[in-house]
């Protein structure tokens, strides 16, 4: 049996110092994934473990006129009452994750840094342009959430990366479409979420994003650009054109089940034509 030393840093400085000086530190936030990511029946841990839920900077929530920023160690329950999870479909999506007991422990940082696949909230956060702040001892960097995916859309979580904050621009979303496809989302499985978000500005589409995330993550920037700035409601020609672009890029990237996804993308675009969130 190997023994690990457990550290309880009290602030970010202590934590970044620890990560700098020790090799192979295992970060634990809620700790809800550990039974699932072990390679064998026997539990094994890194020589050093850092428990981060006591760090005030990582459990604070700030809101300005333009964005909301939450610490990576906020639990999913703590986020239930803040944008974008405080109402409507985003709230329902949050409630699909485990049980309230799980959400009281599981953190948003652990959810995003899971690494084996993209979990339930990923596609929504990607549609909302979430930015992630990472910290090392002398360096703070901010990356778009797509930093967590490689060019094939596979999770690419670098070891030793400390996620400190998640920032989401406060924007008015006029149309939100969320659909689950496939089976389970956690710990493995073929489940995925398709999310699209659109903003309509004086009878034209000011913003549109569509993301699918599960075992891999997918987005077609060109198809989105085809839709953005188009008149609203979308003319049939542009709608068909965008659908053709999605079909091509899904096939080209060999992304999951194209025949299943295409009707859903079509549904997302039709939904954009009629309903408001
Ligand atoms: C019973 C059960 C049911 C579940 N059902 C669902 C479901 O339906 N849908 C779904 O999407 N998920 C589900 N989950 C998964 C859940 O979302 C994750 O387990 C949880 O969000 C992970 O958070 P955590 O704080 O426990 O992470 P931890 O287990 O502590 O950490 C997860 C990983 O992230 C790393 N990490 C954590 N925080 C940071 C950080 N700040 N910086 C860098 N790395 C970090 C850890 O080192 C570890 O590798 C379920 C979990 C359980 C236990």
The structural domain count equals 2
Label the overall shape.
globular
Uncertain spans, ≥5 residues at pLDDT below 50?
none
Give the class-level CATH name of the largest domain.
Alpha Beta
Quickly count the helices: 9
Helix share bin: 25-40%
**Overall average residue pLDDT:** 94
The major beta sheet can be summarized as: 5 strands, antiparallel
The number of strands is 12
| Subunit organisation of the chains | single chain
Beta-strand level of the residues, as a percent range? Answer: 15-25%
The sequence of SSEs as H and E is EHEHEEEHHHHEEEEEEEHHH
Structural class: alpha+beta
What is the end-to-end distance? Answer: 54 Å
Q: What is the CA-based Rg, rounded? A: 20 Å
Report the CATH architecture of the largest domain. 2-Layer Sandwich
Describe, in plain words, how this protein is organized in 3D.
With 277 residues, this protein is of the alpha+beta class. It has two domains: 5-169, Uridine Diphospho-n-acetylenolpyruvylglucosamine Reductase, domain 3 (2-Layer Sandwich), CATH 3.30.465.10; 175-274, Enolase-like, domain 1. It is 28% helix and 23% strand. The protein has nine helices and twelve strands. The protein has helices at residues 12-21, 34-37, 88-95, 100-103, 108-112, 122-127, 221-227, 236-252, 258-274, and strands at residues 5-7, 25-28, 48-51, 61-63, 67-71, 131-135, 140-144, 163-169, 175-181, 192-201, 204-213, 217-218. A five-stranded antiparallel beta sheet has the order 4-5-8-6-7, with no helix packed on it. The chain has a four-stranded antiparallel beta sheet with strand order 9-10-11-12, sandwiched between helices. A three-stranded parallel beta sheet has the order 1-3-2, with helices on one face. The model has no long low-confidence stretch (mean pLDDT 94). Flavin-adenine dinucleotide binds at residues 26-34, 52, 72, 96-98, 102, 106-107, 109-111, 113-115, 119-120, 161-163, 185-186.
